[in-house]
Model the fold of this input.
Amino acid sequence: MLVWCSKKKEFLLKELFESYGFTWVWTLNYVIMGKPTKLRGHHLFTWSTPCMWFNKGKFAPNPWIADTFMAGYGKKFSSYGNHKWAKGYEVSLCWVNSFSKPGDLVLDPYCGAGTVPFVSKKLGRNYLGIEKDEKSYKIALEQLRSIEIQAFPYQYQPDSLF
Done:
């Protein structure tokens, strides 16, 4: 299981998932080089998102992967940048391919613009994408139109399912 989170939430999520029987394996990192900040003049990698890897049982990714994925320079390479926390096709392709096999189910409970479902379908995985923001949902549908999909009508449900 891969879980995107903020650096501030890493320890909380580790404790939470371990309480449900998952084992933390490693934290992967997604870095966007040159994201505009006050530190840009110092040529620092100023924006990264941790992606925590948890297991239940034994699992090794295939093929071997680096624990840090470096995206291109900000918006210049960001054709997928339609969502506030958008990740690129490149990292999604790499990690979906490494952490699943054709026919596996890939769940993206916060699918945003639909990058993970799109990549999953292209790689022969089954997928389930969930998005609560109507604008992002429409962007995901538009992106997924080029491949065969099953989509349910947008319906906002503000109450918890639990």
In short: The first strand starts at residue 2 and ends at 4.
